[in-house]
Amino acid sequence: MEPITGLTRGGAVYTPTFVTALNEKTCIGCGRCYKVCPRNVFELIERELDDEADEDEDDNMMVMSIANALDCIGCGACGRVCPKNCHTHAPMPVAA
């Protein structure tokens, strides 16, 4: 299948890349991706504790999660502002 493509204002063809994953283990919860996203794709959630983490440890750190992946417009702004490179992007095929 062919990927979704678009045109810039100047008429150049480009292929948008849509957010497909967010690594919550490396996310520091800074909120930069949330603030820059024009479509409310992200939400702030409480970090899941690792199995190997001590249960008595008070780890209630907040991190970003993908809430509405289908609302992503493929602008890539979230990946450009993330200081930890937590986002994974990929082109998507045209819907049939």
Per-chain topology:
Elements: E1 6-7, E2 13-14, E3 18-22, H1 32-36, E4 42-46, E5 62-66, H2 77-81, E6 87-90
Antiparallel strand pairs: 1-2, 3-6, 4-5
Which architecture would the CATH scheme give at its second level? 2-Layer Sandwich
CATH fold type: Alpha-Beta Plaits
Beta-strand content bin = 15-25%
Mean pLDDT across residues: 90
What is the rounded Rg? 16 Å
- Biggest beta sheet summary: 2 strands, antiparallel
Tally of DSSP β-strands: 6
Shape: elongated
**What count of domains describes the coordinates?**
1
Quaternary assembly: single chain
Distance between the termini: 9 Å
Give structural notes.
- The chain is of the alpha+beta class and 96 residues long.
- The chain has a single domain, classed as Alpha-Beta Plaits (2-Layer Sandwich), CATH 3.30.70.
- The protein contains two helices and six strands.
- The chain has a two-stranded antiparallel sheet. Strands 3-6 form a two-stranded antiparallel ribbon. The protein has a two-stranded antiparallel ribbon with strand order 4-5.
- It is elongated and about 45 Å long.
- It starts with 5 loop residues before the first strand and ends in a 6-residue tail after the last strand.
- The mean pLDDT is 90.
